[in-house]
Amino acid sequence: MDQFCKSIFFVIISFFIFSSSAKNSQAATLYMPDDCPNLQECFSSMLGGDELIIRNGTYVGSQNAIGEAILPPSGNNNAYTTIRAENDFNVIFDGENIRSMFYTWIPREYIYFKGLKWINSNDTAVHIYEWNHAKFIKCAFMNGENSFRVSTVWASSGSNYLFEDCHAWGSGRYSLNIQTSNDVVVRRFVSRLDAVTGSLSDGTAPYPAAHFMSYASQNVEWQNCIALDSDQDYFISLASYYLGGYATHAFYDGEYTENNFYNGCIALNIDMHNINPSYAGVPGPGFLLDGSRSSNYLNCIAWDTARGFSGNNLENYTGSINHSTVSVNTFGGDLSYDGINSDLNLNIANSVIMGGSRLGDGSGIRGGVFSDYNAFYGNINRLTGSTDNYSLGSVAGIHDYSHENGNEINPLDNSLKYITRVESGSDFEGIASDGGYVGANVSNKIGTSGTMYGENDYNINTNVSLWPFPYEDQIKNDFASYNADGINPNIPDGKRGFAEDIIDPYGKPLTLTRYVWQYLENEIPCEIYDECEQIIIRSDVDNSSVTNTTDALLTLRNSLGLSMDGTAWHVSAMTGDVDCSGTSNSTDALLILRYSLGFSMNGTSWCE
Question: Is the separation of the CB atoms in 386 and 393 below 8 Å?
């Protein structure tokens, strides 16, 4: 090739490379239905890295159902393909109970969904397979009818999934099933599993049900998730047995459940122990460790569940439960470890374990469980009526607080006013192995928002308050919409628990935050909703926490109309108005001087 031809060839190649690069770096933004009437048309017009903004509204029909023939293009590590709502939670894809609006077995990568709702599916509401780097932020999912054997959200055989500030409700086996996947973060996901509908038709054993399932998945972080209010009887005699709020599955398709970490998660009011007559003796725990090789729990709460933590088939297990709080209902014993292999290595420390009441061999902990620095209270063997904190191989740790050690403490005396924290200055302060509290503290957000597994600060304690819980009004409205007012007698009324439209005992509308914090019938701390009464000391005009002659001189200066710039005068509408006249003047200055000199204020106009 001569030099001229080489030059022409180089120019042509450079043109295509530049054009492709420029096109990728200038991603397009489309609006639906303005630029394209439905998802099928929109996706066919998009390139990787483009953004689709969907106008508020409800979308139905097969042309709006993501599936094998209707898929967004993959993005890349520099530019996610984005599909988002015009306004969060105001775009709804409704399957009308005749189709799933998001079900695919085709791989994709670098896709970002935000603010969307998928509801009323006759199958899984959202299913993805072999996706890589998929984000679901502020999304909602609901299954309606015919939910036997399906999950509300099923993310399988992929990696780098992020579910953040999402919620799911309605029928289904699992609200969220992370199956044979790795490097996953589930952050601030709220689940209420309402019912399991359908019946056995092929003679197989009943299928299990749970709020959150890690199904033979590795490196999964569960942060600040809440599973709650599955306490009704609409599971009895139906298609499943109950695995609890958070469950793991042992082995599937050559993979084990490994390195799952639960941080600041709550299971509340979710017993359902009679889910199937064949399994009436297997009540659902808050947290189930079934065949997991390594699951760790920190600052987790199981309250008013049939069992707290339960482990089965834990061969070659390493893991721990630390700084957690368990209080079960009257059906089953908490921390009930049946049939555990002798090589189990589970440590429980710095936790509160109370309220167990089991028929038979133990109600506190049992089996191959190693306990130390825990507080046991009120765990009763119903056959004997006696306190029974340890059985079937478990023994009291030397630092445990328990009846067996002669140092039992009632957590409700002064330590637990709220299930979400241990009170400062209480009996449980400073007695943990690390010098901190015994019990859970679910106060702060875990993980920096938007971060995926392994990214910087993806699992830190942010020191940003978790409460009020994000988007709690939206969650309540969605949960309440399910079978509102119990129109269908075969499924529960969605207006129950925190979703009930009532005023709480303290005169405030019930919210998710108030429901969780006030579960022990103590009013929520005023600082959570910034409702604390502001106490203004009118005479302390320099905000020094003491009233003295300096305050009198500053008040006089202000009353004379002199500039207060450069002084210690603290700007406030009430500053210096100590006779409550509505203004601050020389009379106030004299009153402050009199007060600071220690004279009696009786008979004066002093109003503080």
Answer: no
